[in-house]
Amino acid sequence: MSAEDATASRGARPEWPLFEVFVRGKRGLNHVHVGSLHAPDEEMALHNARNLYTRRNEGVSIWVVRAEAITASSPDEKDPFFAPSADKVYRHPTFYPIPEDVPHI
After folding, report:
1. N or C: lower Cβ tally within 10 Å for the chain?
2. Poorest-confidence range of 5-9, 59-63, 90-94?
3. Region 47-62: what's the mean pLDDT?
4. What is the pTM of this model?
């Protein structure tokens, strides 16, 4: 008998995955992280997020993302992660020649 079968036979459910919840308050605004919740699947996470994190029609859009699917940089890595882009001159538009047929503004 597997561990899942043993858990099911005792009546306990396996641990639900953690979802991170992002809500957009109004059209044109960014989604903002508002919290986390556990749910058995994405659809239930969306419904639970609506019930938990929005009231009085204050949100226009909700995103739920499995926490295990998110990879993020740390604020402590700001300098080593973002600073190297300043020395890459090929990122600046002055590095590229403008073709003759492109109108100059």
Report:
1. C
2. 5-9
3. 89
4. 0.62
Phi, psi of 66 (to 5 degrees): -60, 130
Query: What tokens were used for 83?
Result: 């600073």
Residue 19 has, within 13 A of its CA and on its CB side, a CA count of 24
Query: Going by C-beta distance under 8 Å and a sequence separation of 6 or more, which residues neighbour residue 58?
Result: 25
Q: Across-strand partners of 19? A: 37, 66
Helices assigned H by DSSP within 1-105: 3-9, 42-53, 78-82
Q: Which residues, other chains included, contact 31 with Cβ-Cβ below 8 Å and sequence gap of 6+? A: 22, 23, 24, 61, 63
Which residues, in sequence order, are CB contacts of 73 under 8 Å at separation 6+? Answer: 81
